[in-house]
Structures are given as structure tokens and as C-alpha cells.
């Protein structure tokens, strides 16, 4: 496989469920990201990991818990979500990470996303 | 003022025409600019990057950057129905020390190319 792979593609969960989203990148990149994409809103950065260390948490509620066991894998653990958390969750990676964003010419490569519906 | 602004559209053009997508940004120290294409139900895909003033051409795509006016545009020549997608503008800016960077996306412009 190549690129950035996300599973599952679709997820429906109740507000009391616990689930996890998985992301794997096969590009040899050092930085991985979780983004949330809601209708009619810009992409919202949630978390950034660089070399397995969390370097940014954009005031995300604690019901979202990221985990990065190695530079190729990233998880997003979900617990007691709200209906307003329903969105497309995108994982991305980049070759390098600098500061609070991405390096000068190291664009993001996105996975296909997980369409999450909270009922 | 929003950091990165795009007309949400939809922008409709006939097949074969030139589609012009515009993006303005508020931070003068922005330095890297990207255009992503996102098909419905799919993830964003990088199609162009531009870092200096002027035009950059790649096949049917041309990115234009004007830092003085703080806008970046994407032209698609000979538009095809397969170009119908949402186009996201993304901007990187660095702080004054150049040690921290921030990537900000616009909301995207929906382009429809009619056969």
C-alpha cells in the first residue's frame, strides 16, 4: 500500500460508545495530523504529532484522545461524543514539521477520511 | 477578517472554458501557498504549490501569486467535467522569528464544469 490509509471509512456510533479511528502512512513522513472537516467550515486542525511526540493540541475536547505509537501510525480514540462531533475526520502526514504548523515546502498528504456520525 | 478567504461558489463554467478560482489572505508574512482539490466524499489532494510572486504552470493548471495584493489564484484551462470538485486554498505563514509556522485552509470553492 502507498500513501495515507484510514480505517474505518464510515462509522456510526452512539453517544455512550467508545471507538477508535486508525491512520497509517507509508510515505516515511515524520509528522502526522488529525483534521476535522464539517460542512461549510474550513478544515480544523485537531492534533499534530512530530516524531511520535504531540506538538499541538488545538483546544480539542477531552472526548477526543490521540495516540501515536510510532511515526507510521496514528489513532484517534473517541468516547462519549456529541451529535455535533459528526464530521469527516481526516488524517494527514508531511515530510517535516516545523513549529506549530508545517514546514516551508512540506505539504500535507491526506488519507481518505472517516465519515463519523454520532447518534 | 478571516485569515484565508475564498468565494464558496458554486462556480459554474462550460466545458472547455477557463475556470478562475481566487483566494485572499490576511497575513502579510504568509510565504507558502497551496491549492488542494477535493472531490465529493474524498480527501483533499495537493495539485499546486507556489512560493514566489508570478505564475506557475503545471499542465492545464496555473497558480498566480501576488503578495503585494495578498491574493493567490488558480486557473484551470480547457476545463473538463472531471475538474468538478471543491478547491481549497491553504496558506502557511511564519512568525517573525521564522521558527513557527501555521497552515490555514480556506473554506473552499465548489467548481462545476458543465458538459
> Helix amount of chain B, in percent?
under 10%
Low-pLDDT sequence parts of chain A? none
Taking all residues together, what is the mean pLDDT of chain A? Answer: 88
Biggest interface goes to:
A-B, 22 and 28 residues
Strand and helix order of chain B: EEEEEEEEEEE
Helix content bin of chain A: under 10%
* Structural class by sheet pairing and helices of chain B: mainly beta
Provide the gyration radius of chain B in Å. Answer: 14 Å
Q: Sheet bearing the most strands of chain A, described?
A: 7 strands, mixed
As a percent range, the share of strand residues of chain B is over 45%
Shape of chain A: globular
Gap between N and C termini of chain A, in Å? Answer: 33 Å
Outline the low-pLDDT stretches of chain B. none
| Number of helices, counting only DSSP H or I runs of 4 residues or more of chain B | 0
- Please count the beta strands of chain B (DSSP E, at least 2 residues each): 11
Strand content of chain A: over 45%
Largest sheet of chain B: 6 strands, mixed
Could you state the order of secondary-structure elements of chain A as H and E?
EEEEEEEEEEEEE
Amino acid at each position: 500500500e502507498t500513501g495515507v490509509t484510514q480505517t474505518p471509512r464510515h462509522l456510526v456510533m452512539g453517544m455512550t460508545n467508545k471507538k477508535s479511528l486508525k491512520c497509517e502512512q507509508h510515505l516515511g513522513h515524520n509528522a502526522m495530523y488529525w483534521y476535522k472537516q464539517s460542512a461549510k467550515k474550513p478544515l480544523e486542525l485537531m492534533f499534530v504529532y512530530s516524531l511520535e511526540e504531540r506538538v499541538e493540541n488545538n483546544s480539542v475536547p477531552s472526548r477526543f484522545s490521540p495516540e501515536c505509537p510510532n511515526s507510521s501510525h496514528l489513532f484517534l480514540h473517541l468516547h462519549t461524543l456529541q451529535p455535533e462531533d459528526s464530521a469527516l475526520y481526516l488524517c494527514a502526514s508531511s515530510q517535516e514539521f516545523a513549529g506549530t504548523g508545517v514546514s516551508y515546502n512540506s505539504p500535507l498528504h491526506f488519507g481518505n477520511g472517516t465519515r463519523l456520525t454520532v447518534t | 477578517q478571516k485569515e484565508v478567504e475564498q468565494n464558496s461558489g458554486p462556480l459554474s463554467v462550460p466545458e472547455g472554458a477557463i475556470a478562475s478560482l481566487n483566494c485572499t489572505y490576511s497575513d502579510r508574512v504568509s510565504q507558502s501557498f497551496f491549492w488542494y482539490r477535493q472531490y465529493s466524499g474524498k480527501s483533499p489532494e495537493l495539485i499546486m504549490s507556489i512560493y514566489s510572486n508570478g505564475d506557475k504552470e503545471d499542465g492545464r493548471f496555473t497558480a498566480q501569486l501576488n503578495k503585494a495584493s495578498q491574493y493567490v489564484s488558480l486557473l484551470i484551462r480547457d476545463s473538463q467535467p472531471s475538474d468538478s470538485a471543491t478547491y481549497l486554498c491553504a496558506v502557511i505563514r511564519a512568525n517573525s522569528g521564522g521558527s513557527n509556522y501555521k497552515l490555514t485552509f480556506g473554506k473552499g470553492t465548489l467548481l462545476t464544469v458543465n458538459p
